[in-house]
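Predict structure. Chain length: 266.
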Amino acid sequence: MARQNEVDLYVGIVVTMTSFVVIAGSVIVLFVRYHKKMMRKQKELHLLETLHKKELLVNSIQSAESERMRIAKDIHDEIGSIFSTLSLSVGQLTMENGQVSEYVVRNKGLIQSGINSVRRISHGIIPFELELLGLHQTLENYFESISSVSEIEIEFNCSSDLKLLNQDASLALYRIMQELFSNCLKYAGAKNTVVDIHQSDYANSLFVNYRDDGIGFDFDAKPIKKGIGLKNIESRVISMDGTVDFYSKPGNGFNCNIIFPIEKEA
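Prediction complete.
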């Protein structure tokens, strides 16, 4: 009888321990499943948040470009029309002997200068050449204009067909070049710059490299960090699902590498 009780005790202990093991295992399995589910939910939320931020960024850029377009058209149409009308009116002024006065000639010259300024400003706000000439020729014209008003030598190498880019990507790349050369003119003190554009060997992407021999700067310096210009470049690259890297050291110029996928027009 005592031996039977001892066996029953051992069996009870084994059953109890087994039950604990089963319960503990079930708890662990449930915890792992819960953890995986939470991780999956977090990834989904992060992805949605990233997509939402990108959508807000793209909408912000598109809104800014639409506003640029409106302002450029207003300047070109309204102010340009005023200058043109004024030029015609002044052109009708003559002296009593039928000779055009020096005063009229001088003022017609000033009016024509105003007309040219309106055209230059409106075209600077919105690059109408993109639709007429394409990105490649527009960039060449832009680089020539930079060289003509500065001492900067610009080497432009492009082995890719930029017609493959859709309208948004073309405008974004043009704006990026404007930002880079604006910084170069303001801060770099560079004498030579190089712009290389070619199609990458993988993922059907476009690779863009800008580099200059300017004074450079220290990225780790707190007062410098990333200014508005570089952040604007980052924003435009992100809106194109691309990546951008900046390299610079004091005395070693500035280097910018950009890669983004080529998305053709639908």
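Summary: The chain has a mean pLDDT of 75.
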